[in-house]
Amino acid sequence: MTMPRQGDLRVFGVSGLPEITPGDDLAALILTALGRQHERLTSRDVVVVTQKIVSKAEGQVIDLATVTPSSFAQHYAAAHDKDPRQIEVVLREAARIVRMDRGVLICQTRHGLICANAGVDRSNVPGEATVTLLPRDPDASARRLRAAWAATGVEVAVIISDTFGRPWRRGQTNVAIGATGIAPLHDYHGQTDAQGRPLRATSLAIIDELAATAELVMGKVAQVPVAVIRGYDYPHAEAAPGAAALVREAEQDLFR
User: Fold this and answer.
1) Which domains does the chain have, with CATH numbers?
2) Using one digit for the tens of pLDDT, what is the confidence trace for 16-29?
3) Helix/strand/coil (H, E, C) string of 7-76?
């Protein structure tokens, strides 16, 4: 499949959403916020939604006052000046501990994602002792949002994003942890480069690139949890496998 030629992109943030609480109709709230900006969704848009507001709407929120830390969590927290209740939540959410070093817990989640603290996060959450977890199924979360907007007559692609660090490079970047309506990868295998050489190993993580693009208008403290990317000519993919397709199988992971 040949990648469509890309023209100019427009990327804009959606601000003015209220504090999201469990049970909120996130799709409707985003449409309302867009309307206040004199914007609307159009078919073929890519809508990037931060994990944090998806988790809040889905009730993936834990009051640490309800958590009893294990002795291991207490010991680790005391050694690294951490909240033992939050460490306990991280341990519960982790399917595998990849690395424990200098107070940092790098975990593999049940989704297969490798990230700090198994995605357990205290930032941008009201209250002194409240954390959010990752959505139970981020691809399903994306599908629900897409279906809600399709019911209004627009067919869009949806990406659920989160901010991850990366081995070997400083800084964090947005990545896609959920997606629908768009193929997650574009495989150049079988095509040729400008010199006519066949490409054998080039596969672009399109949804990660779009998630990172959206972060440029979101920011971490600007309270812009949604972005719309317009003008990206992605191949329609009704039955695309979602962001789960980006998780590398264990037998192909050279760093285990």
Assistant:
1) 10-60+135-250 (3.30.1330.100), 62-131 (3.90.1660.10)
2) 999 999 999 999 99
3) CCCEEEEECCCCCCCCCCCHHHHHHHHHHHCCCCCCCCCEEEEEHHHHHHHCCCEEEHHHCCCCHHHHHH
